[in-house]
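We include the pair:
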Amino acid sequence: MVLHVLVPWVGVMALGYSPPSFLNTTRYPASLLFLLTTLGPTILRLPLLESATGWMARTLTVFGRVPLFYYLLHSPLIHLAAIIVSVARHGAIDSWLFANHPMRVPDPPEGYVWSLGLLDLVTTTVVAVLYGLCCWYGQVKRRPGAGWLSYL
């Protein structure tokens, strides 16, 4: 735990930043401090994950075998889920869903903010659907004659 906190701080101090500036990060575009706070602890956990066993390790292995497939499907599936929730809650697809951009996100329409419970439900559903699709695609990749699929 000490290394988890200490390594990003050492990197920040070596760059000449003050400790409070460590919290002033930007995700888009990714600042060096943001990368230090996200990638640093992840890299430190890699040796622990290499020897992991159990259901969580098997689940993560499924996603790890088909990373590009997961990456290409997750955004459209999340968008589809948002459309379904929009229709269920408001009876129509809100045009705001098609106007988003990571750098200039417009304010959401009145009454459109999701509760944490709804967000958790949609996230769990999307990951479960992607898990099933990744299991299927992982089996397709292992079939004889599917060598070209190893790139996806």
Observations:
- The CA atoms of residues 89 and 112 lie 9 Å apart.
- The mean pLDDT is 81.
- The longest helix spans residues 116-142.
